[in-house]
Design a protein that fits this description.
Elements lengths: L1 H23 L8 E5 L6 H17 L3 E5 L6 H8 L7 E6 L5 H4 L12 E16 L8 H10 L5 E4 L5 H13 L4 E4 L3 H10 L4 E5 H9 L4 E6 L24 E9 L4 H16 L1 H9 L3 E2 L5 H21 L5
Parallel strand pairs: 1-2, 1-3, 5-6, 5-7
Antiparallel strand pairs: 3-9, 4-7, 4-8, 4-9, 4-10
C-alpha cells in the first residue's frame, strides 16, 4: 500500500500537467480555413496568400482557401474578418494599406485597424518602383519628370485603389517633386498594371512584386526603385536618390491577421506555421523571383508596427490632404 501511495503521489503531478496541457490545446483547425484578400486575383497580396495557403494546408491537414473580396480599398474584406467568429477559421491577408484606412475613413468603417484584429505575422515585403508603359516612352526619371512638368495634371498614374499604398506613395512623390498627375484608381494591382501595359495609363508607383515579371519581359520600363540601395533583381535601375529625388522611400508589407479574441493557442500555432513558411528555402526563392523578400515580424512586434504605421500614415494623409475618391 505504501508503495502504491508513493507511485500515486509521483504520478499525480504528471496527471495534472497532462490535464492542463490537454485543456490548453485547442483542436484547430477543425474545418477549412478561409483567407480573405481585399484585392482581385493575380496581385502580390493574392500571390502571398496563395503561397501561404498551400503551405498551411499541408502543415495542418485542412484546406486553406483564398477568398478574393476586392472593393472599397480592402475595407470589405477587413470588415468581414473583423466580424467573423474568433476561432481561427477566417483570416485576413492584409497589406500596407490596412494601416492607411483609419487616416482616410475615420468614423466610416466598422472596425479598428489594430484593435479589431490579432496580429499573427508579416510574411513578405516589396519596395515601390516607378514604371511606365508605352503611353509614356521615357527611359529615365529625369525624362519622366520633364514630361510630367510639361503637362501639369495631364499625365496619369494607376494604383490598386484610392488610399492604397500606391496612392500614398504616388502623392508623396508629387509633393516632393512639386508635380501634379491624374490619379486612376483600380480594384487591384493586376488590373492597374494591365492598363499601364496597354497604354491606357502612363505610369504606376507599384510594388516590385506586382511588376517584376512585366519589367523582365520588357512590357514595362522601370525608372527608379524606392529603397536605400538598388534591388539585386533590378541592378541597372537606380534608386530615387541616385536618380535625383532624395528623401523618397516607400515599401509594402503583406501579413496575416486574425479576428480579435482568437484563442492564444490558435495564434501560437498560426505563428509557428507562418514562421516555418517564411524560412523555407522554397519560399525565400519564390518571393525573390517575384520581386519580394520574406519578412517575419510576429505577435507584439507586428502589432507595434501596425500602431506606428497608423500614426505615420495619419500624419501623412493630413499633410497631403489625401481623401478617398
Amino acid at each position: 500500500m505504501k508503495r502504491q501511495a508513493r507511485i500515486a503521489r509521483w504520478l499525480l503531478p504528471l496527471g495534472l500537467a497532462f490535464a492542463w496541457t490537454a485543456q490548453a490545446q485547442v483542436p484547430w483547425p477543425t474545418k477549412p480555413v478561409h483567407i480573405l484578400v481585399g484585392f482581385s486575383a493575380g496581385g502580390p497580396t493574392d500571390v502571398v496568400a496563395r503561397a501561404f495557403a498551400e503551405h498551411a494546408s499541408r502543415a495542418l491537414g485542412q484546406p486553406f482557401v483564398v477568398d478574393n473580396k476586392p472593393g472599397a480599398n480592402t475595407i470589405l474584406a477587413a470588415e468581414a474578418v473583423a466580424a467573423a467568429p474568433a476561432d481561427g477559421h477566417t483570416l485576413l491577408l492584409g497589406a500596407t494599406n490596412h494601416t492607411m484606412i483609419p487616416a482616410l475613413y475615420s468614423g466610416r468603417v466598422k472596425f479598428d485597424a489594430v484593435r479589431s484584429f490579432a496580429a499573427v505575422c508579416s510574411l513578405a515585403a516589396s519596395p515601390t518602383v516607378l514604371v511606365v508603359g508605352p503611353a509614356l516612352p521615357v527611359r529615365s526619371l529625369a525624362e519622366f519628370l520633364k514630361e510630367v512638368k510639361a503637362s501639369p495634371g495631364k499625365r496619369s498614374y494607376a494604383t490598386p485603389g484610392s488610399g492604397s499604398s500606391g496612392h500614398f506613395a504616388s502623392e508623396q512623390f508629387t509633393r516632393i517633386t512639386g508635380t501634379s498627375m491624374n490619379h486612376i484608381p483600380y480594384k487591384g494591382a493586376a488590373q492597374a498594371i494591365s492598363d499601364v501595359i496597354g497604354g491606357q495609363v502612363d505610369s504606376s508607383f507599384a510594388t516590385l512584386g506586382s511588376v517584376f515579371a512585366q519589367v523582365q519581359a520588357g512590357k514595362l520600363t522601370a525608372l527608379a526603385v524606392a529603397a536605400p540601395e538598388r534591388s539585386p533583381l533590378l541592378p541597372k535601375v537606380p534608386t530615387f536618390g541616385e536618380a535625383g529625388v532624395s528623401g523618397y522611400s516607400a515599401d509594402a508589407w503583406y501579413g496575416l491577421l486574425a479576428p480579435a479574441g482568437t484563442p492564444p493557442a490558435v495564434l501560437a500555432e498560426l505563428r509557428r506555421v507562418a514562421t516555418e513558411f517564411v524560412h523555407k528555402p522554397g519560399t525565400v526563392e519564390k518571393f525573390r523571383l517575384l520581386g519580394m523578400e520574406t519578412r517575419n515580424a510576429c505577435g507584439d512586434e507586428f502589432t507595434a508596427q501596425l500602431v506606428r504605421e497608423v500614426k505615420t500614415n495619419g500624419d501623412l494623409a493630413r499633410a497631403l490632404d489625401l481623401k478617398p475618391e
